[in-house]
Specification:
The complex is a heterodimer of chains A (about 110) and B (about 240).
Chain A lengths: L5 H25 L7 H7 L2 H14 L8 H17 L2 H19 L1
Chain B lengths: L4 H12 L1 H20 L4 H11 L2 H12 L4 H12 L1 H13 L4 H9 L3 H13 L5 H29 L12 H10 L6 H16 L7 H27 L1
The chains are: A mainly alpha (about 110), B mainly alpha (about 240).
Chain lengths: ~110, ~240
């Protein structure tokens, strides 16, 4: 149970709200329509492939994840379907369908 | 009846965002349920989902609050989890930086993973979209997901104990991110960047408060850009 007082809870909520907004607003707000240098634009094109795998990997493998062969298998199938079909929806449906389908089948 | 180009893009964004709803609905309901079970009242739970609107940071904060971590640690950890969104902000600046300040502020409020991921695919595929079309598409993904996030958090908070919180829904989060990234792995540079990201984040898992993620992501950006310029040089030489 949470023992923090209502004041502490609201400090956390408001602090997270302001901090998260400032992070999201940072470049959009300060840079605006000034052009960014070409080298930076080249780097930024890799943002999704550089960030999202680092978010996902610790959830599936590594010390803090409870590594489960079924999850790893379904994750691998999701990647293969995604690369092959280039379709986000098919990849999600196949990955989750397999996970819940095989999970029910294997108990 | 014909719609303006921006409205057409809004509708496309809403449609492309549909697969994420499969994940967002249960995720929001579970956040609402476990937050209520941990002792937060409905106003506090909704305060998180409406004001912060960042699922993984909200869960991280909730986890630390139940462990009675100091307020400063809760805030620092939750914000570290969200630092990746600073990169999203930078990545979108060339696309929507010309919008008015109020529009940019509203876009920033809604700059979470899913609209970022879909809009970045769209903007790369169709670079000639106008500013209003780009904004239309982005908000088309973001607004319905945001509304679903509020409503399902509320449902979870009100239903509380009736929501099963251990049904494997947590697995839906990595699956959606993988499904977004896989279609982007179309050049050697993209594959190299993604592999660097995975290897480094695992190697740096000892670093506190998710800071390993940031180091891994920045190095992966550099690797992607470097491999791209090597490939261009090789092509030019051949």
């Amino acid at each position: 149970m949470i023992e923090a007082s209502p004041t502490q809870i609201w400090i956390i909520i408001i602090g997270m709200a302001i901090g998260t907004f400032l992070i999201r607003f940072s470049f959009l707000g300060l840079v605006g329509d000034r052009p960014l240098p070409a080298w930076l634009l080249r780097l930024l094109r890799y943002t999704p492939v550089a960030v999202l795998p680092a978010v996902v990997a610790p959830m599936l493998i590594g010390a803090k994840a409870d590594t489960d062969p079924l999850r790893l298998f379904c994750a691998a199938v999701t990647i293969i379907i995604g690369v092959w079909t280039k379709n986000v929806l098919w990849a999600i449906l196949t990955g989750l369908g397999l996970f819940f389908g095989l999970g029910a089948f294997l108990g | 009846m014909s719609y303006s180009p921006a409205t057409q893009q809004f509708l496309k964004g809403a449609k492309d965002g549909l697969p994420f709803h499969i994940v967002i609905w249960p995720f929001a309901a579970i956040f609402g349920a476990i937050a209520t079970q941990a002792g937060l009242n409905v106003a506090e739970v909704m305060g998180f989902s409406i004001l912060v609107i960042a699922g993984s940071a909200q869960l991280a904060a909730l986890q630390l609050m139940t462990e009675n971590a100091p307020t400063v640690i809760v805030l620092a950890t939750a914000l570290a989890v969200n630092l990746r969104m600073g990169m999203y902000s930078a990545a979108f600046t060339p696309h929507i930086g010309k919008a008015s300040l109020a529009t940019r502020a509203f876009a920033a409020y809604m700059l979470y993973d899913q609209p970022y991921a879909l809009a970045s695919i769209k903007f790369e595929k169709e670079p000639d979209l106008s500013l209003s079309e780009k904004l239309g598409y982005f908000f088309g993904v973001a607004i319905p997901i945001g509304i679903a996030w509020y409503l399902l958090t509320l449902a979870g908070a009100l239903l509380g104990e009736m929501i099963p919180t251990d049904v494997g829904v947590d697995f839906a989060v990595p699956i959606t991110f993988l499904a977004v990234v896989a279609p982007m792995l179309k050049t050697l540079a993209h594959v190299a960047s993604a592999l660097t990201s995975v290897v480094l984040v695992l190697a740096l898992s000892f670093m506190p408060y998710g800071t390993g993620l940031l180091v891994a992501a920045v190095v992966a950006l550099l690797v992607g850009a470097q491999v791209e310029s090597w490939m261009e040089k090789r092509k030019a030489a051949a």
